[in-house]
Specification:
Layout lengths: L8 H10 L1 H15 L7 H13 L4 H18 L7 H15 L5 H4 L8 E6 L6 H14 L4 E5 L5 H14 L3 E2 L7 H14 L4 E5 L7 H18 L6 E7 L4 H13 L4 E5 L9 H9 L3 E5 L7 E3 L2 H8 L3
Parallel strand pairs: 1-4, 1-5, 2-3, 2-4, 5-6, 6-7
Antiparallel strand pairs: 7-8
Helix pairs in contact: 2-3, 3-4, 4-12, 5-13, 7-8, 9-10, 10-11, 11-12
Length: 317
């Protein structure tokens, strides 16, 4: 298996397949919008705006892309519709590059902290537990010692699911069952990780948003307790979003950003939707880097988000 974070032919093939529905939907709409037209004019740009918005890129990000293309049309005087794909690809790449804050060491998971503590947040049903399991699998595949913490004690199913992933991947888990104090679970997990000389700790947390005050207090308590055991922990707060929900994923991101400081995003289930454009909009609007994308059911189908490969795949047809 390729070193997690470094792109391989297998990763690219998985990405191409995972974005297939998005590509088919996007380019069929784009082709219809420019059929019979040779120049990029106001009418073509209006059509393009609609294509981007209906592909869940989001209104604000779409307007930003259209404005950039308008500037290029004004500068070049004439822009042929045959050039539109390449121009659009360049502008989307430029937008994603502005929020690509991870360096190559981070993408290769050479951590500067040990254990490196990841706190995972997200509403129920977005693929949070599956993402944790896949991350644990890929870290372990690189020879890292991984410890899981089942601090989503609001639902018994959440604890049970994480136990299943712990057994499947073959990594230890710290859990106290449903109803336990999440901060206590986090405390015990970090203590256990230190005793085992673990490389990575992944802490699951409750996924409810119906009471933001309680959630904010709970996450704040967990962070405070972890910091006492391992200074500066958690080193990463990963928000998991379901890409198939389109703009609803963006709304969830905004709500979670109000409750806790998020440092990275994982966008899952892109293989089952035509709404892959949401990756572009969330990256641009939230100013939080997309670190992982889920493009399939397999253990290795959770990939480090590579903006160049993503855009190349999106525009390959």
């Amino acid at each position: 298996m390729a070193f997690f974070g470094l792109f391989s032919k297998e990763n690219k093939a998985s990405l191409d397949k995972g974005l297939e529905k998005t590509k088919q939907s996007f380019f069929s709409r784009l082709t219809r919008s420019i059929v019979g037209k040779s120049k990029v004019d106001a009418e073509v740009l209006d059509e393009l705006e609609e294509v981007l918005i209906t592909s869940d890129v989001g209104v604000e990000t779409t307007l930003k892309i259209i404005e950039r293309i308008e500037d290029r049309v004004a500068k070049d005087k004439v822009l042929n519709t045959s050039e539109l794909n390449s121009v659009l690809k360049e502008e989307i790449s430029a937008l994603l590059a502005e929020n690509d804050t991870y360096n190559e060491l981070e993408k290769s998971f050479v951590f500067d902290k040990k254990p490196y503590v990841i706190m995972v947040v997200g509403v129920n049903g977005v693929g949070k537990t599956t993402t944790i399991g896949k991350l644990a699998h890929q870290f372990k595949s690189q020879g890292m010692k991984v410890v899981l913490g089942a601090a989503d004690t609001f639902r018994a199913a959440a604890v049970d699911q994480l136990i299943v992933w712990s057994d499947r991947v073959g990594v230890p888990i710290v859990q106290q069952g449903m109803g336990a104090d999440p901060a206590s679970v986090a405390f015990d997990t970090l203590q256990s990780a230190k005793a085992q000389d673990a490389d990575v700790v992944i802490i699951d947390t409750a996924g409810r948003l119906h009471n933001k005050v309680n959630l904010m207090n709970e996450l704040g308590k967990i962070r405070k307790v972890m910091d006492k055991v391992i200074p500066e922990a958690p080193h990463e707060v990963l928000l998991v979003l379901d890409g198939s929900t389109g703009q609803n994923a963006f709304e969830q991101a905004k709500q979670f950003a109000l409750t806790t400081q998020i440092s990275a995003l994982a966008i899952t289930k892109l293989d089952g939707t035509a709404k892959g454009g949401v990756v572009i909009g969330i990256s641009d609007q939230m100013k939080i880097p997309v670190k992982y994308i889920g493009v399939g059911e397999g253990m290795n189908d959770l990939q480090i988000f590579n903006k160049d490969e993503f855009v190349d795949s999106l525009f390959s047809f």
